[in-house]
Structure formats: C-alpha cells, structure tokens
Amino acid sequence: MKRFVLPFLALTLALTCAACGTSPDEQAETTVSTPAETETVSTSAPAETDVTEETEAVSTTPAETAEPEEMTVPTAENNYLISVPVGDSYQIDLDGDGSLDTVQYDVDPDTQDASGAWSMGMPNTFSVNGVSFLSDDAENPMSDYDIWMADAYNPMSDYDIWMADAYNPAAYYLVDLDASDGYYEIALVDYGPSDDEVCYLFRYDSGSMSYLGWIPSCPEYDTITFYGDGTVQALCTMDVMQTWRGFRTYQLSEGTIAAVEGELFTPYSYDDAQEVYLKVALTVYAEPDLSADTLVLEPSEDALSFPLTDGESWVQIVCADGSTGWAYFTDYFMVQNGDEMVDDTEVFENLIFAG
Questions:
Q1: How far apart are CA 355 and CA 263, in angstroms?
Q2: Could you give the 3-state DSSP secondary structure of residue 290?
Q3: pLDDT tens-digit readout, 118-131
Q4: Angle at 179 between CA 126 and CA 83, to 5 degrees
Q5: With bands split at pLDDT 50, 70 and 90, how would you rate the model's confidence at 72?
Q6: Which DSSP letter does residue 320 get?
Q7: SS3 for 237?
Q8: DSSP secondary structure, 79-138, as one string
Q9: 44-61 in b/e burial notation, b at 16+ Cβ within 10 A?
Q10: Under 8 Å CB-to-CB from 120, ≥6 apart: which residues?
Q11: Distance (Å, rounded) from C-alpha 60 to C-alpha 100?
C-alpha cells in the first residue's frame, strides 16, 4: 500500500492547471524532458491561434446541429487538439471518409438528496452521428471498454485501471495522435490512480467505436504533449522506489496506445524536492541489466541524485563522489541488495510516499 504525505500532494497539484477547460493559448511556455536526451520542447500554441474561440464558433447543441462553414481540425499549432465543452456537440470528419461526424459527450454530475445521500455522476451521452456508444442499461455505461468513469465507490479491481472519486470534467477533446493516418481521436478525461487525471482515447471508424487505451494527464495541461506522429509525452506517476513522476513516452501502435517499453527517462525535478541519502552500503549494477557487473555504493551524508529510471524496476543512482550504478527493485518498495531483498526505507533516507 502506498504511504501518504500531504506536502507531496500539494506539489503534485501545482503541476496542473486549475481547470481542464483552459485553452492552449493561456498556457505558458512548457519545458519538458524528452526521454533520455533531456531536450527542451515547446508545446505552446502561437499567439495568434485561439483554439477556444474556434471551438465556440463551430460547437452546436444537439437540436441545432448544422454543418459549419469551415471545419476546424487539430493542427501542430494547437498541439493536435480541440477542446469542446462537456454537453456540446462538435462536427469533424473522424474517420477520413469525407463526411462530417457529429460528436457529443455529456456527464451527469453528482447529486445529493434531502437526506444527504449521494448519487454518483456518470457519463450519460457518448455518441457519434446520434448513435450511442454507452451501455445505457448497465450499472457502468462505459463497461464495453472495461473502464469505469466518474464513480466514487468502484475500486476497479476487475479492470486494468483504478478509479476513485467522481470527476466532473469541463471539456472533452478531439486529438490527432497520428497526423498521417486520417483519423481524429476522442479523449475523455477522468480521475485515475492516486486521483491523478487520465484521458481515455477512442477511435470512431465507419459506425464503430474502439477503445485505444489511456494516458496520464488532461490534454490541455502543460504536463502532456501530442506530437502528431503517434507519440505522446506525459507526466506519469512511477511505480518504483518512492512516489515521484517523470515524462514518459506513449506510442500508438496497431490500435493501442501504451507506454514505450524499456524507455529510460528523467524523473521530474521539483524545486523544493526532498534530498535523499544512502543509509547503508548498497550493491548496484553497472548497467540496468541483472547480468551486468556489480559494485557497492557506500553510505554518505551527501545527497544522492537519480538521473534516469524506467519507472518500474531500475533506478540510476549517482553519489556525490561520482560513483554510480543501477539499483534493481523487484517490487515498488523492495530493492535488491546483494542476495537480499530489502525494504527501500532501510536503504534510503528521506524518501517521499503519497498515494
């Protein structure tokens, strides 16, 4: 079970926008770490691109859906996305067949009756061209996709994702994961693990809907970048050593989007991050490979640095004296030290835990 620290949650919240409805023009210049190469990437839209205004110009209500004079589509200038207010419809050619498709998404908010009992919010509309893609008679209308959105009491134990606390988004999104494939995807936002936002990606093709998978963050936050070549870089919570984050690459391949396996990326650097120290001698590997040579890092009063990780099993450690190696974790908190598996709090001082 993850261990909680309130100060870390405050740092996490500082990474994200106050609301998911913020347009890309309102975002500041964004610097992210490209995996391994740690390059600076600008994701802000040019000053003259106003995505919000364009969206409002073509958004229609279900009763008055009409073909817009000029269809606005995702472009590189606005990070391959269009923001649409929840409850509004939008017209776009989703599958490249030359005909405009009318997309609509709406969510019932949480309600509380006079006795104080809550009824959980849930998607009530997810349709293209008037055809619903929800399981309307099911307890979970998103059950066809093995996801459960906006429900406070389902731990998601039967699914591949974990959801908590009802989430009432301000917008849904049309994104272009790959500008060369002729499709635009629909992104729906909800809470994910540790109450971090995630977006679920769907593809419409000739009357059918397919679920592509999920990626962390909300599309309009400065913690996510759509490159339009099938890759997305997003700030994810890592599953190794402590509660921390890094910008990870997600790749669209054969109708599924998932984290790139084996990628080494740089943990996110917080301005007021806690310094971590080595308490005992730790046997590490010269490379992130269990067959690599081993060496021993000695404890010190000087803080450690962690340049790279795969976010799952391997963490690179650099000591103040320049000695370096890769620690191997068999589980979130269990680090291998020679022939023993040890709780990482016995090895490292001042780790951060939240959840």
A1: 24
A2: coil
A3: 677 789 999 999 99
A4: 40
A5: confident
A6: T
A7: strand
A8: TTEEEEETT-EEEE-SSSSSS-EEEEEEEEPPEE-TTS-EE--EEEEEEETTEE-S-TTS
A9: bbeeebbbbebbeebbbe
A10: 110, 150, 151, 152, 153, 166
A11: 13
Least-confidence region, from 177-181, 310-314, 331-335 = 331-335
Residue that is written with structure tokens 């759509």 in the block: 226
* Distance, CA of 42 to CA of 28 (rounded, Å): 10
Residue carrying the six token digits 């589980």 = 331
User: 242: exposed, middle or buried (C-beta count within 10 Å: 0-12, 13-18, 19+)?
Assistant: buried
Q: For residue 204, count other CB atoms closer than 10 A to its CB.
A: 21
Q: Tell me the H-state helices in 131-220.
A: none
Q: Give the pTM.
A: 0.71
Provide the token pair at 56. 């409002």
Torsion of CA 175, 180, 183, 189, to 10 degrees: -20
